[in-house]
Specification:
With 159 residues, this protein is an alpha/beta fold. The chain folds into two domains: 71 residues, 2,3-Dihydroxybiphenyl 1,2-Dioxygenase, domain 1, CATH 3.10.180; 87 residues, 2,3-Dihydroxybiphenyl 1,2-Dioxygenase, domain 1. 33% of the residues lie in helices and 28% in strands.
Length: 159
Amino acid sequence: MAKAKNTICLWFDKDAEAAARFYAETFADSKVLAVHRAPDDYPSGKAGDVLTVEFTVIGIPCLGLNGGPMFTPNESFSFQIATDDQEETDRYWNAIVGNGGKESACGWCKDKWGLSWQITPRALTDALAAGGSEAKRAFAAMMTMTKIDIAAINAARRG
């Protein structure tokens, strides 16, 4: 398999392998491809420590880098996961939040490593794309939610 031309590099303190394995277990079409150990000591680790982990998240190539505590994730980067129904929305949301993560607003949550996720039902993006009063009502409903409730979005869209 050829290496991807563009790979998302995610900085972790020291848990890149645990995070990659969690993502691979949680999301379809996700897997850990390789674990690379440091050939020598480095500022935040020792020779033999896991340095990088190659993995995919729903087919997107990623590299987890155990770079130490000097940089932490923030909301300026997130994975947006489109879901097809409430069951899928609940499954992903509950996996992230229930594994040491935190709820946020409007379909956003953070995993225990601080990475942000938008668990976004297609019903919501379709409602917002409809424009006009449908989008306005769906947007107002979304603004009151943490995890997105598709039935409530559809009801708001209908008026």
